[in-house]
Amino acid sequence: MKILVVALMLLSASMSVSAAPKAAGPAGGAMVSGIVRDAQGVVQMGALIQVVSSNSTTAVTAFTDFHGRYLVTNLLPGKYHVRASAALFVPALRENLQLRSGARTVVNLTLSTLFETGSWLPAERRRADESQDDWIWTLRSAANRPILRMVEDGDLVLMSSSASETSKVAGDAAKASVMAGDGTFGRGGVHHIVSLDRSLVDGSAARFRIDVGTGLAQGHSVFAGRPSTEMQAGYQRRLGLGGAVRTVVSYQSHPEMVGTGRVSGLDAVQVATAQKMQFGDFADAEVGTALNLIHTSGYMTAARPFLRVSAHPSSDWTIGYRMATSRSVQAFNGLDTVQPELPVAVMSQGKLRTESGLHQEVSITRKAGRGMVQASYYRDALENVLVSGGGGLIAADLDGDGSSATRLNGVIADSSTGGFQILASGYRSQGVNVTFTQPLTAGLWAALEYENGSALASQQDGTVTIAGVGSLLKPRTAQAATVALKGRVLHTGTSLRAAYRWQPEYLVTAVNPYAPFSDQAYFSFFVRQPVNCGRWLPAGLEATVDITNLLAQGYRPFLSADGRTLYLAQAPRSIQAGLAFNF
Fold it and tell me: Quick check: 139 pLDDT over 50?
């Protein structure tokens, strides 16, 4: 019965296209066609198309079909306006379109939702696979009501009406990939990754991912590299009123981690849940939490909730409030990928401790043409801040001899990369953040961000113990600025994210660590490119390059007790690359 209802609705939409009235005109009249999508690149069925002459004497209407396409023929030569509209969307308009006799013109339009400004900025921290919010796509009726969930096989952004698109109601997708290089903390060595995706007719979707890493012993580390294992499973289910719920369960085992007292191994289980809700055209909300169970020299649990509320008094203005207690999961889209960051706990002052904090932010957003401007005020209360470093540790650095220096701050090292993290004191901060974003093409946007606040800074250089260096870090007021580019390059299949985030080099943590680009220290970029070599290579092959802090800026050196030079850095440089096969 459900299949019959869906078929009738699709047939009705198709008949609406063919039954659209046409302007009277000669056989050689002009023609306008195109595709209507939303801001995420999803084609919109049943959108109303109006082609109006500049003097308003001729008005022709049509509706988009199953693939979001429309066609209007037999138009008299002249100047026209093309308008696309749909329920819950801000209308899109192409003005001053000059048509000549016999001309065939392609006009592709993008509809923006009233809630679009709340999702322009990535609230989650970057992941290596840089996936988007693509768990579920929605096929809509002429009244913009969801009919079926579907997953697109091809590129999400197509600019030609002649380009073919295929879609499926339900199905499976799989990816096998290999990543290697000088990775970040917890991501070193060679990683073999297999992921599976499944979407169902009822709108639910599931993901599974397993990552087996082969540690590479570093010349500056005395600890032998050993394999690591990560397994994650995610599930999403659609709710009423445009809402959805997501759950991601992950298990991570990293035997290459070594803590104070030479305690080897770090295991973590994380259960993250999130739900989003929409209350008509006026407001939307997101709420969720991440529960961590961490085992190293002992066990500890930590719950990290978040909340986001946005009100939309008009289509151009948004007022929002955001509360977060974890930098890794701050919003519903923070569970977009099933690859979470590694929760880290270290032994300090006889207790197992992990980083925690409370971030509160009030923001005002206004659309500016096709882009938007957002201004926000935030307050942070951070506890047990983890600071990254490198240079290679020796066994003596991690001996738990009971000295006061060792008890001051915990240390945990990654034997595969030679990096380490130390536990520093907490601090409080407040400041403002101003962001301007502007779409450059249908799939690519640019952003400028400015913020001020406080961050931890190195107060002096000298001979210190590795466990005591954290006590020398004090908060200092500073400013930061970011220019970023993110999206897809049309006609190439290339996905990229590039950013240059500047802040004073004496800082070893980020100004406003809960900001979207807080982990993009200095020059960083990510590129994913389909590899097409005809018959020489199979279809579905992708190459990936992921680089953080390419120019190795912002390093703060210090001398350990035995005279070795180590360093602290907001984001140590990492270079990873790999190949993936989609099937």
Answer: no
Determine whether 348 is exposed, middle or buried from the number of CB atoms within 10 Å of its CB (0-12, 13-18, 19+): buried
Contacts of 293 (CB under 8 A, 6+ apart): 268, 269, 270, 299, 300, 301
Q: Round to whole Å and give the CA distance between 225 and 317.
A: 52
* Chain centre to alpha carbon of residue 100: 44
d(CA 194, CA 192): 7
20-64 per-position pLDDT tens digit: 334 434 456 889 999 998 876 788 888 899 998 877 766 788 999
334, 124 Cβ separation under 8 angstroms: yes
pLDDT for 158 beyond 50:
no
Of residues 15 and 372, more confidently modeled: 372
The length of the chain in residues reads 583
What confidence score (pLDDT) does residue 290 get? 93
d(C-alpha 558, C-alpha 422), whole Å: 14
- Measured CA to CA, the distance from residue 274 to residue 234 in angstroms comes to 11
Mean pLDDT of 235-253: 86
Q: Give the residue-averaged pLDDT of 428-449.
A: 90
Say if CB 556 and CB 521 are below 8 A apart. no
At 206 the three-state DSSP class reads strand
- Residue 338 sits at φ, ψ, to 5 deg, of -95, 20
Count the alpha carbons within 13 Å of 300 in the hemisphere toward its beta carbon: 18
Q: Are strands 345-348 and 371-383 parallel, antiparallel or unpaired?
A: unpaired
Report which residue type is found at 560.
S
| Inter-residue contact 449 to 434 (CB < 8 Å) | yes
Closest CA to 542 of 238, 179, 203: 179
DSSP string, 296-313: SSSEEEEEEEEEEEEE-S
- Show the beta-strand stretches assigned E in 183-241: 190-199, 205-214, 228-238
DSSP secondary structure code for residue 43 in this structure = B
Nearest alpha-carbon partner for 180 in 115, 128, 131, 132: 128
